[in-house]
What we know:
Number of strands: 4
Amino acid sequence: MMDSTAANLAALEAEAEAEVDVEVEVDVDEDEDAHSMAAIGRRPMTVEELCFSSAMSCFEGWLKLDPAIGPRTMAYVTKFISRTLEKTHNLKDVRETLSRSVELWIWLTKDFAAAIPSLTTRSIGPLSTLNDPDKGATPQESTALITKNYASLKEDLQLLIKLMHIARNLLVVPEPEIPQDLCAAAHFDQMLYQTIILCVNVTSKAYDGDILEETARLKLSEITELYKKLLVTCLQQAHNWIAKNDRNKMTFWSTVLFDDDPMADGDDLSLGIADFRPDVAKGEVQHWIERNSRFCDKARDLLIQYEDTIAPRGLPPGYLARISPLAWNWLPDGTVQVRADDDKDDSKITPHWKEYEADKFERDRAYGRVSREVDTWWLKVRDPNYDEWVVPMPSVDFAQQRTENCKANLVNRYATSYRTDEHEGSVHSTDGAAHPEGSSEEEPKDNRPPYIHDYNDDMIEEEDVDDDDSYGEGPMSGLLTEVPNILDPKQIEALHMIVKSCILDNAGLALSRAGENLQKTRCRMFLALECGRSLLREILVFIAVWEKSEQSLIFQLTTQIVEAIHHSAMIPFAWQSLRIPKDIISPAQTVLLRLVNNMFRARNADPPPPDSKEHLRDVKLLHFLFIQFRTRIVPECAALMHLQAQIRGDQCQASDFPVDSWDMERAKDGLQQFLELLTTVNEHVETRSYLIEWEAAYELLVLLKGLEAGVPKKPLVDLANRTAQQQHHHQQQQQQQQPPHHQQQQQQPQPHHQQQQQQHHQQAPSEHAAAPFLDSDRDHEYDGGDPPPPPPPPIQEHAHQFPWAGIKGQILHILAGLLQPPPGRSSPGNPDVQMQIIRHNGIVSLLNCCVYDDHNRYARERVQVCLKWLMDGSDAANNFLRELVAMSPPPNLRPVPADDGVSAPAVPTASLRVDGIGGEVKVRVKSDVPASLTAGSIANSLTRHLGSASGSSTTATGSGSGSGSGSGSSLALPSLASSTAALLGNDLRNVANTLPPIQSQAAALQDLQDIAATYGPPQSTRTRSEELLRDIITLADEAARLAIGRRQDASDETEEEDFM
């Protein structure tokens, strides 16, 4: 048998080598051959069909061992399959011919039907474990099976990958509906699902490669990669099979989403899942598939021809299976009951639900849509503001109460398994709304309070919540859920394209006879079922794990998936389904925010009209997300910052901090994405007005105050720590250089000797006060040619010391955007936002940001812009700033006491706190200040200089909101000269030693020195805007100096208290 089969294949190969002549002969005698083939009951076959079908027939025997196939025959099989794959890649005519062969689709189904049990037995154990990974072999047992059957697995997998490639290519033809219908008729799609399950079961096992020897590890890795390639090709074939075919999409969606486990979709009342009945919805979807089971006419003709002329002869591959509602397409009339709709009837139907209809199929036919269960569920869980504004924005008073509750219950929130507190209820709890019973069958509308799943105290969950399971660890439901954990970004593109193809509502898409958008219906099914929600979570987390950029194909495809969910008003529901109780914001929610932000950024480039449906839909989404920001994100982040402040002030123990650094990092990532979204929304005038209306400035100021109290500012140079490290390094060097018997004698006086040398270098005269201290200290430490010490190893910060780096800069950027004047005007600042900042005591918070903070390196520059627009046209802000600066204490410039405790007037040295440098810098004070330079003359000069452009504007402040041309007459400036003189007092040394907080502000100090040198106001040629900006910079410098120049006896006070 083996020799005859090989001989037959050899003859086929010889014929294939001469395929050009054969094809010519077929073309010449086409009519004659057609008549002869019709006489024997078989249509004419091309050489490619004959070779490929023969190869697949032998491959089935190879897999089943019936009949026995030898290696020589398999060599021909491999050659024919490889050649067929090459032709389907390159030759359009061959691809189209093979795609219309019913025999080939049946052979493909039979080959995979034989391969799946064989591969399962050789890879993961008995076939009975294929759909139940819990009963399968352990990873160690599976590893032993794979390494034992390595050679045969490799050969078979390579052939199966080629066969799946061919099946994928056969669907890329001018009329794809023909091979799509033939594929469904042959049930190849069912083999596709089983192959995906097998690949997932093999590749998702946690193989322990460390315990294997090198050879076994290489074998295991190679087989695993082959399974991944087969999985990728399966996904590509599935995408081609469902393309532009609603019946196939619905069939595929039903297969991958409806889990056989009835408990897969739990009764999560907070999400409204308890009202959804998956078994009812599955039956309705199956009825819709049966009503739409008609094939295209050409596919039906091919199937009928095969059943009437070829299958009755008893030759392989035999009859088509008659186990599906599709069989009526090729069977004689009257063989089976036909319940498909008439495709020629294109009249519109009105959905009507017959409650008392006994026949469920007829009841679903009268309804006309895919599933009433899905429609009813969607009406309950969609955005409650979908039709009209129902849910208002929570007030600032509620946000304040919410924040205080979060601060009071922070520790309990993580320690008591998220049990509900009595005093924290729904936003709408004051309305007396209660949970109603399920809606009636006739009226699917739901009367429960909108966002009921959202505004119940969502910080706290039921006590049976398992945090480990919520992160997706352990088995997950769904055919495709594990795929993102197996494939890399290049391999997984087909999965995203499948989801997009099933749910994205493209423009111009035709509706069904019942007026239903099938893409939206499948999108709702996607979120209604646990398998779909799990897959969405994994798709989102995939972007974070692989750190995909906005330009990557995966990110763009996922954005389109989120866009489809947004079109169905389901992002609020998706947001809640992605929640993890232990996190303020889960990683999946963070990625969802990033995708929504990308979506809004695209809107800014081409914004929809303000009165359009698209704009209103975006505003409602923004409304929901800002509610989350106000009621959950900001209160919980502020509570963590409050506890950080208490630990910083020794009011609590560090051990009381309830979360770890990883939790803090996730909270910061989520907060950053929310701020990024607000930044994007703030760029467009229409959406910015909503942020102003909702008083977004309050949340931003709450975060600023929390950061100021809870996180110490990081200096650019920390002198105290640096000196201590240098002393420790110097001691180590001295100990290494001294002999052992002198080490004990030299160790004690060393610190005193170092201190004397440091004081000597600190008191050396210099033109620059702070730099010589650093340079001289460096020269002393590295004297003798020693290399500088290596940087200390990075220290893992404790969770309570988490710096929230970069958050201040984002907040200030948003505040500056909210404060800016309307488009086309240069002044004044937005009066509503100005009053919001003043009302919530935000000026002090802004001034505290003037001090350099290495955690927020550009905060100082951004706060200057905020102060510019805050002071521009606001009398209240100007008066507040004048009083604040006037009441602030002078800088701490005191001589350094000598060793005996008495001040040493002969050495004019003072300690000074410089912005950006931690600790106090000891500087030499210049004594050659002209006697004629008095504080009064400086104050008068400053008054004349600053008042030259603002003297007439004091009375015009009330009309500052008129013209926006930027003229000086419409602006009110703070008079900083008197405040500066009050700060300087009569100590002339203060004038020369008030250093600018950062180097970039040296120009502002130079202007003050020029004024003092000329004893009067210079001839200023600055414009009004330049004068205002100069005053803001001066104010920022003064604010920074005041913040860092607090008195030593009050060093335990916070900077905010120092300003107050």
